[in-house]
# Entry
Amino acid sequence: MAILKVARLGHPVIRTPSAPVPKELITSAGVQRFLDDMIETMREYEGVGLAAPQVHVSQQIAVIEVTSNRRYPGEGPVPLTVLINPKILSMSKKHLIDWEGCLSVHEFRGQVPRADALEVEAYNRKGEKVRVQAKGFFARVIQHECDHLVGKVFLDRMPTLATLTHLHEFVRYWQEG
Ligand code: ZN
# Structure
């Protein structure tokens, strides 16, 4: 396994819509190794999600894992989830505003409204089509990662940049608890 280099905002790959992975390639050694590398990279940088364009690969793959969740203590952890060619089937009308950050938008935080619940269809790493229902923080992370696959970042979803905050100032002035 290998820790991959993270592309930051400004690298064209972050703004390039990615291509679907051909279904028959999902179980190939190359894609499986890449999934392992994405998971290792996400864990190394303590991200809760990582999309393939963030590691310079313009393919529709995202990995998500939340081991501890101080912000939503009632919701519990999110198990390791691999989404390949994800399609969001439905989203709740109810939106919640909360802080987001991104490994590709280094050391910033901003407030982003996201649908509180959604259903997404994707292939898992075995090449099986799965449907995932998500709420709260898990739903937020799925929306954030699916945005990466169409070349969007959380800044595009902020209704105003007035809450855009450097990480240092976020910790100092805004972080709760
Ligand atoms: Zn991100």
Summary: The chain has three helices and eight strands. Residues 112 and 156 are 9 Å apart (CA to CA).
